[in-house]
Amino acid sequence: ILISESAHLIWVLRCDRTINRVQHSEQSITKRWSTIMNKRLQTDRITAKIIIRKDKYKNLVTSTWSDVI
């Protein structure tokens, strides 16, 4: 999840730089990455709690994100 989301952000930033000639600061890139990861984490939490209420899925989400949060 981290790799695919990060790769997508890199692609978006490179397109933005190439097409729109926008230079992003390190701080703005870090903020965007954090926002993306938090949204993905929230999606996974909702999925684990509402859609799939089984403990094994809750444990999977927890173990996936435990090193990040």
Describe the structure.
With 69 residues, this protein is mainly α. The protein contains three helices and no strands. α2 runs antiparallel to α3 (55-65). The longest helix is centred in the middle third of the chain and has 26 residues, at 26-51. The chain is elongated.
Question: Main attributes?
Answer:
0% strand; 69 residues; elongated; 3 helices; mainly alpha
Summed up, the helix count is 3
Shape: elongated
What percentage of residues falls in helices of 4 or more residues?
A: over 70%
Distance between the termini: 14 Å
Provide the low-confidence segments as ranges: none
Q: Let me know the largest β-sheet.
A: none
Order of helices and strands: HHH
Question: Average pLDDT, to the nearest integer?
Answer: 85
Structural category is mainly alpha
Radius of gyration from the alpha-carbon trace, in angstroms: 15 Å
DSSP strand tally: 0
The fraction of residues in strands falls at: under 5%
